[in-house]
Design a protein that fits this description.
This protein has 217 residues and is of the alpha/beta class. 14% of the residues lie in helices and 30% in strands. The protein is built from 3 helices and 24 strands. It has helices spanning 16-28, 57-62, 77-87, and strands at residues 7-12, 31-37, 47-48, 51-55, 69-72, 97-98, 103-104, 109-110, 115-116, 121-122, 127-128, 133-134, 139-140, 145-146, 151-152, 157-158, 163-164, 169-170, 175-176, 182-183, 188-189, 194-195, 204-207, 210-213. Strands 6-9-12-15-18-21-23-24 form an 8-stranded mixed beta sheet, covered by helices on one side. It has a 6-stranded parallel beta sheet with strand order 7-10-13-16-19-22, with no helix packed on it. Helix 1 links the parallel strand 1 (7-12) and strand 2. The longest helix is centred in the first third of the chain and has 13 residues, at 16-28. The mean pLDDT is 94.
Length: 217
């Protein structure tokens, strides 16, 4: 039964990331979860984490005046970008979602649609852009800037004064030194990499210290 004192929300994406976000929302107790949206027809009407897959993206456009809060639970940055472009200028709202176990300083600014997973710490004067996802157990120090539609893998540490541009993927357990490092857009940081220097746009980085390797994200 829906709680009339809570806002309604639909989760776009019925995979493991959708389960993670639904668990955050359950603990947060601020929203009624109406169900999942997924374009995989095999998932239609199935229950994910006790919530029903209620339709595909077309369902949203048919009901956009009724259900306005959405959480994007798609882990592929390119696919996320396409979904965001479709939905961003429609009659939907994208609340920032933060797990109750997180330690977020008051001076932190979160863009709409951003999602911060459990046990993450973000220190003062950090800015996280729209539709970015920060994984479990991430440590982000002060004066960090993270752009729009970035994914920061669990267990990553981002030192102070690091600037990460739009659409950057950071694999789990990566480390960024505390200095004025710029990671340009569309970069891919492989899991466990250690970043000491600037990263050019479209680079794929791996290792300790990280080096560029052939291939683009």
């Amino acid at each position: 039964m829906l709680n009339k004192n809570k806002k309604n929300i639909i989760i776009v994406g019925a995979g493991q990331l959708g389960i993670l976000i639904s668990n955050i929302l359950i603990k947060q107790k601020s929203f009624n979860i109406l169900g999942f949206i997924d374009n995989d027809k095999k998932k239609l009407n199935k229950f994910i984490n006790n919530y029903k897959v209620i339709g595909s993206e077309s369902y949203l456009f048919k009901n956009k005046k009724k259900y306005i809060n959405l959480a994007i639970a798609v882990g592929d940055i390119i696919k996320r970008e396409k979904i965001i472009k479709k939905l961003k200028n429609q009659n939907f709202a994208f609340p920032s979602i933060v797990d109750i176990s997180c330690n977020i300083d008051k001076g932190v600014k979160l863009g709409k649609g951003s999602i911060i997973s459990n046990s993450t710490t973000i220190l003062n004067d950090t800015k996280i852009g729209e539709f970015s996802l920060v994984g479990t157990g991430v440590n982000i120090l002060h004066n960090v800037e993270i752009g729009n539609n970035c994914i920061i893998g669990g267990g990553t540490t981002i030192g102070s004064n690091v600037q990460i541009k739009n659409k950057v993927f950071v694999g789990v357990g990566s480390t960024f030194a505390s200095k004025k490092i710029k990671v340009e857009k569309n970069s891919f940081i492989c899991s466990g990499s250690v970043i000491f220097n600037n990263v050019k746009a479209g680079s794929k980085m791996i290792g300790n210290p990280a080096r560029a390797i052939p291939g683009k994200f």
